[in-house]
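Table S2 (text version). Query chain:
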Amino acid sequence: MGVLLDFEKPFRERMVGKLAAQLGTMYQQAGKIAAEYQQLMLEQPEEAITKLPQFIDRARCINNNKSYEAYTGGPNHDWTGLMLDVLGTVYPELERRAREKGLKQCLKFLDELNYLYSQNHLELINEPWLVSDIVLNRPIYWCGYNEYCDTAKQNQSWKNFSEATKSVKSSFWLAMAVIRPEYTSLEVRKFFYEKFPSLMDRTKDAVAAFAAVFGARQAQRENRELSACIDEKLSQYDPMLNSDIRTKIEEKKWIVL
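Corresponding structure-token output:
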């Protein structure tokens, strides 16, 4: 499991810290490839997006990983997922055209896998915008966040919760659990919102996208009012966030190809 990313730090610092946690382990080679990819992403993001398949392939070939795939049916997501997460570190800062290109590259890779392997990759992406755009275009890749809900239910004080979540696979999926009042205490939500405002802001963007897009699809499928479907989807989240999320629905920052 990776260290919980502090979204209040610049993405360069966040990513270097995450990769440093991987060094010295059996994943050292994947960490080095991801560090190289991150440097390219920082300097030439559009070139890095174009070369995403090449870096994924390099990760797949670590220690004869292609032989590993022959036995397991798919790549080691702990290695290839790092490359998608690198894209996530700059994704919100890219112009829409570049985000669309990056999203298409992700989908091209994930679509070649069994959907369960694709879900394994989404479990490792920290950036809410990237995860939500992938899920909006491929709902079958929704991986869920039950493990974080269980952790929240078992740790109702901020002290215990923060200790239990020092190491997580995805900051975004953790945030999705936090904003569910049936799992988290008011104390946990309050401190989490205060400690991770950037993560929370983009998580609200993601929830807005899910509510608007999936709500519209449900309304059409069931011949219901769109507003009722959106209300139904938002009802599961912290009502304190309702106003912000509805504002973000109007902003429409998501991408549906």
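Notes on Table S2: Residues 2-141 form one domain. Strands lie at 2-3, 167-168.
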